[in-house]
Amino acid sequence: MRTIKTIIGLGFMAAAVFMAGGQKQLPPEGAAPKDFVLPPKETFALDNGLSATLVPYGTLPKVAVLLVVRSGNLNESENEVWLADLAGTLMKEGTKRRTAEDIAAAAAKMGGEINVGVGLDLSTVGGDVLSEFGPELVRLIADIVQNPLFPETEIERLKNDLRRRLSIQMSQPQTLALAKFRKILYGDHPYGRVLSTPDVIQSFTVEKVRNYYRKNFGAGRSHIYVAGRFDKKAVKKAIEEALGGWERGPDPLIFPARTESPRAVHIVDRPGSQQSILYVGLPVIDPSHKDWQALQVTNAILGGASFLSRITINIREDKGYTYTPSSQLSWRYRDAYWLQFASVGNEVTAPALKEILYEIDRLRREPPPQEELKRIQNFMTGNFVLQNSSRQGIVNGLSFVSLQGLDPSYLSTWVQKVHAVTPADVQMIAQTYFLPEKMTIVIVGDKNKIEEILKGFGPIVE
Amino acid sequence: MQKLATWFLALLLIIPIWNCKKSGPSFSVPVEYHRLDSGLKIVLSPDHTAPIVTVAVYYSIGLRIEPKNGTGFAHLFEHMMFQGSKNLGKNEFLSLIQGQGGVLNASTRFDFTNFFEILPSPKLETALWAEADRMKGLVITPENLTNQQGVVINEVKAAVHNQPYGGFPWLDMPQYANENWYNAHNFYGDIQDIAAATVEEVKAFFKSYYAPNNAVLVVTGDFVPQEALSMIEKYFGDVKPTDRPESPDITEPRQEKEKIFSKDDPLANKPAIAISYHMPARFTPEYFAMGLLDQILLQGEDSLLFQALVKKEGLTGNVGGGINLLGNMFNYNGPMLWTAYLFYDSRTSSEKILSVVDSIMQDVRNKPIGPEILDIALVKIRSALYDMMEGFYGFGRADLLACFALFEDRPAEIYLLEEKLRAVTPELLLKTAQEYLRPANRTILTINPKGAGQ
Which residues of A touch B136 (CB under 8 A)? Predict the structure, then answer.
């Protein structure tokens, strides 16, 4: 029975129910979305191999500059885990021309900050400032990446920050799950090393940092992106002048990962844990494969499209087991894995896992209805438009295409390719890539409470 | 179909947002303000940069004001707004919007609960219809309530109980720093309170607060105002107003004595500390001065606290915080805290950290801040304001417009912020620091780590 809010509403609704036999009003459809066109861009290269892309965009008077270098945790050896992170933070501690305080003050005067990011394949140095400071920001970033001092005086403090970060991450259940999952998939490959150790951090020296920088930084493996509102001529001139003299440097390391994932349940014991963190996933094809878009659609049907996704509807909206279940395709250079995540109560750990596996199996058994697929495709293409409607989003998309070495038409044809995926394609993808015998299951939780109920999902491994 | 008269507060305002002395480019978009007979406030602000449109409905009911025996109720109720309405069944609101390529969300904050969609611009009518539909009435069943109690309890456990530093400091600090129950209770809710909520309470809450005369509707993005207004009249025109209950007194007394607390955290490996000061009242000159003091003291690596605690003393890797940890300095309407927090090492004492903080606070209370530092703070806050407006695919601008309509009844206030910030003088900064950065105006909370890996 409906809930009635006001006396007047009661009369109105009773009449409506009587006359229309309880039929509900249908929402207005609205017109079809306009064709989405990526904003025009200009790309050029300098003689030293540095690439540059300029994208005028938006109405707000701000500009984002991001310099992306092909280096990161991939370039660390086993006893150097997080050395790339230390190099990144130490880079902001001063150049031959500027002290650390000068760098922070210069960025603040432009209305921004210098952000250094270190990932598995890429390191970035960037900022987002008021439009009029675009060229100045390019010059500041250029100085930081070319002339870092890596001062001895700051290293102990920054190593201590890394140790503190490590300690805090070790107390977070989702980080423990990720570390375990990656270790299983990648073994000794650098992608398998999520967490460092206090001893490894202790062994870092300024010499090691400088050596890492020498081997892994240079114009030839770097790309600078500028997006937003800016003076194009002045920014171009700043790029040529400030980065034209940078050495080409060594070529990037190409070190593909070989993944493995036999079906097993891995429990990371966390006594007293109030919930279980579930990671269920396996290695899949990488973004350069022709099936990538169809795989993205399949991921969206399972868990990657919020409340439209089957696993979310099942274990959140239907059963109330969890708040934020979601799946993703996580990618690195020519590498990817699929992963479903959920944080569930101890007592429903097994039922939640059962439902996740059931939904995968169901998609392997029968193609999705056309109507469901259409909603998923709309969701994906709508989100693509949103993501490409901001400075950072535009830069992220371009940087992805560049890292993966994809065809330049990748972004402009993506919407079309997603809409072309059929129900039969989805079933084929599920059958080909979502193999039950390869599902790696990681659970961080109270082992005493959950071990017994997890028998039957595969061999249990510590 | 009924045609409703609207009355205009402002027809069209196109004012450059920053009249900067320096010659930076400016930003301007039109803002229209209307009101339906039912009392529904409407803000329309077109901007054709991208083919997307934002629809946001803000109800003037926040998490401060919830039943005293029902902590977490306002937030639980937010979930019930997705469980079915007059014409949409459970889950159908979500699949309607997301299936048309939109994103949506809702959040419960100190002084409002909001619901918003960002979607391809030709789908504006779909979103307006759906928001009107649930403003007209909900279908609240015991099954749906039990289901969402399960979801919310899992949400709270994941964010607070199963997490090191869960609730620190955003959920903890208001409970220690404030005196008035409305500001000092557990907003996320005690598990037993969430579990005890009844269908009758949910229905009564809807009836009290979810009505056009307690709401503002904002549309921003790629649309034509006249067309949007017709659609709004069509779908919202017959939604009936309600008798909203009187608002309780949410004022806080002036704090006269420093308060110090500590809390054990069984999952944490490292200690943490948060320091909060009560803010000046919204939109007073001191409030804008505090916005600039936040930039000077806490925001960015050039800030005084970062330079002292991170760079000079090496006591931590970062200092977080700001005004209103559940949002920003503009989207609340009542007592508020300015908070700084950081994580440190067990071998460092909290006294050491406090002595560094104290010496900085003494400086800003004793010596006027130079005009050069004030200028940098103005540049930083201007840039931060643009970031705020762009946040979440441009939703941030709708958020500011909604708050200024809801709290000031003047959405065009968005264009006056610069003037008010520029009016702040070094003398006013000094006066503000002396009253609001007093040691007696602050609360200190430390986390004692009791985790296995310390």
Answer: 5, 9
